[in-house]
Amino acid sequence: MALVTTTEMFKKAYDGGYAIGAFNVNNMEIVQGITEACREEKAPVILQVSKGARAYANHTYLVKLVEAAVIECPEIPIALHLDHGPDFETCKACIDGGFTSVMIDASSKPFAENIEITKKVVEYAHDHGVVVEAELGTLAGIEDDVKVAAHAASYTRPEEVEEFVSKTGCDSLAIAIGTSHGAYKFTAAQCTRNEQGILVPPPLRFDVLEEVSRRLPGFPIVLHGSSSVPQNYVKMINENGGKMPDAVGIPEEQLRHAAELSVCKINIDSDLRLAMTGTVRQFFSEHPDKFDPREYLKPARANIKELVRHKLVDVLGCAGKA
Ligand code: G3H
Ligand code: 13P
Ligand code: ZN
Description:
By secondary structure, this protein is α/β, with parallel strands linked by helices. The chain contains twelve helices and twelve strands.
């Protein structure tokens, strides 16, 4: 199967009450860990590339790695998506350069300007058979070089979504309902603590999601900032020389519930980074004499694969849907 757009994936996910995992890729081991899990679990998948990933690994290397995964996993649909496209030019470069889906993220701009920029990207993308994700509302956290403080984040305003979607023609919409980018999604002040002393975040705003869905029946909604920050990996990092106090994510049962509603795409990046970093740190603690990258990247890739398998089966509900 060649690379696909997300159109068919989202229709089936919407009707079936599950979500597609959108995992960020930056190197070969991450691509392999994700796609091996998806192939074994027969799950459709979105591999996404940020501006930072293109700067780090180079556009062509990333496209070729994803094309290699398509060859190795012919039985599953794979989409290649630009994550947080900052402007028309970056979106155009990805549309011209083999991507099947792009996000234009003009969510920090005023409403009218967001519409104008998004519409321009949609027109170019649709002329080239590529689909477009747009965003309304502002998530907290860090994405690329932009850091949004918790107090500066704002929930999506449901009363704006119909006008936004009809004027832009976008194919899916990322909304802000309380998720946040990175491994430190909430300040201690926003949370309570459970008996183990772990921070418990405030619940997602399902009322906002439900009102958006009521206004946009059948339309695919996207959640960014949806890592759950697995505490076993935070512990592994902290026990092996790292320092990540109070790293906390979105509870998985809330993501599962969102996937049963209109959320068709759930973005996960930080969890993969934590799995990779924890595994490599532990490897070096246990083997201070080793220096072959294959020896420490192999268990890191294996743990990414198992983490992705868990997401597909227990959180997203997309296992067996390829
Ligand atoms: O939302 C942003 C993604 O986690 C990508 O992160 O910009 O560091 O590649 P990055
Ligand atoms: P996390 O930082 O929660 O993994 O979110 C990733 C994301 O939204 C990528 O666009
Ligand atoms: Zn994001």
